[in-house]
Description:
The complex is a heterodimer. Chain A is mainly α. Helices cover about 75% and strands about 0% of the residues of chain A. Chain B contains 15 helices and no strands. Chain B starts with a helix and ends with a helix.
Amino acid sequence: MNRSPAARRLPMTVLGVLFLTVMIFPVYWMVNSSLQADSGAAATAFFPVHPTLDGYATAIADQGRNFLTSLTIALGTVALTLVLATPAAYGLARFRTRGGTAFLLALLVAQMIPAMVIANALYPMFNSLFLINNVFGLILANTAMGIPFAVLLIRAFMGAIPRALVEAALVDGAGHLRAFVSIVVPISRNALVTAALFTFLSAWSDFLFALTLTSTPEVKPITLGIYDYISANTQDWAAVMATAVLASVPAGLLLVLAQRYIAAGAVNGAVK
Amino acid sequence: MTSAGIRLTSARNPRDGAAPLRARLVRRGTPWLFTLPAIVFVAVFFGYPVVQNIVMSFQEYTTSTFYSGHAPWVGLANYAATVSSTMFTTTMVNTALFTIGSISFQFAIGLALALFFRRNFPLSGFLRSLLLLPWLLPLIASSAVWKWLLDQESGALNEFLGLFGVDPVPWLVDPTLALAGVIGVNIWLGIPFNVAILYSGLQGVPKELYEAGSLDGAVGWKAFRHITWPSIRSVVSVVLVLGVVYTLKVVDIILGLTGGGPANSTQTLATNAYNKSFVEFDFGEGAAISNILIVVSLVFAMVYLSISRREPAA
């Protein structure tokens, strides 16, 4: 099978393109109708023959501020998650303690707990801490959901760093923290980037915490902005689709720029 | 927090000439200096809510609790009210249909595509990576797109079916169809994940097995049954269990597409928990429902843990 010439495998490519077309069609339709002014009126053309950016103008006018809110939350979540998860991952990978094993098990179980449960109890808690309708509150909630995955991913990588490397630094008189900062962190760059990308994407896509922990127009992540559109039964689909396209930009960039990281992250995160 | 941590360790570094006893304490303490911040954070913002949720489920916890601070203890009343309501039967049935329907199709299609893409052909890698795109989009963005595609009057699906003379189908508006519509969208969302994990599982099957098998006449379906399937069985269990756990907690798609309606026909345990707490402001009953959801999820989580424990030996 593997030795057959490329030409004989061409029908496979055709079939592959066909499968992909079906799977990707909704994404195409999103972009397509975001560029047509009368989307939602009569029939939407299969191709934007007369493309217009009106939908995007409406989207940015309506939702520009919400994009900034989401960006702030996602970046804040990435920063806080990495600051907490990276040393924890190292501590768990390098020093095997009974408490550490218990914590790891807790993180594994935590990944299974629905965010709904957390939101239900965070609401009263945040209410008394004045963290409702608060960007920092959403950063805290998203970090709580992000840490388990980040720790498990980074730890899996750090476990593979040769002990001798760190011990050499310790012999040279560096403290544990020096060794961590100047040796372990630079070596683990790939794992850190992967964890950062996934954390960003999940905080950017967060809907449940946005829905439950905010209620004002001042603090409204973009996911909630989209929800407002669709639950109001809008007929201006061009603006909705334009917002959806803009909200999907990080995902698209990630796919193009970080293909390798995603595959590795998906496998590590899910299987290990 | 970190800068304080830096100063702490360097000051206590045994090589700075500290007493041996202190050195020993430091050595004992070092692992915790790295791990403690994360442990404290997870305990406060993850552990505490889980525990608090259990407490709340035994209380009458409503909007007035926020003003008065009073949450009377009601024992099992919230659970009793939940289980005895007709809504509970509806949501359990919907949750089961939603989960089983989603998982079986996601998995079957995902496995078929993974097997297909394993045969190297021109552009196979490129096409496979594009296939991941639906997985990475924010769920609520996908919901918006699908709500538009499935729109009764001018949605693309009905327009397409119209070419064959089919009357417009009320996909998300008809109580008998809405659940099927929502399941269909969730299948689409889950396929990329299934392909990605199953494909990586297939990569791990040694080529020699197939060569040896073909000598014994194991090709095609026989090769799949006797070589491929046994080799990827543990990956399959992981995909299925994770799929179930993820599907049980889906809220974004259902709220985005139908809001649980029409006539509660797409209401699941997860969306119902949301409704009780954040629409009806009955946090006690909401907590009870989400605890039932946890128990169901944890049963599957246990299965997952026991599988991933066995993994290295397999």
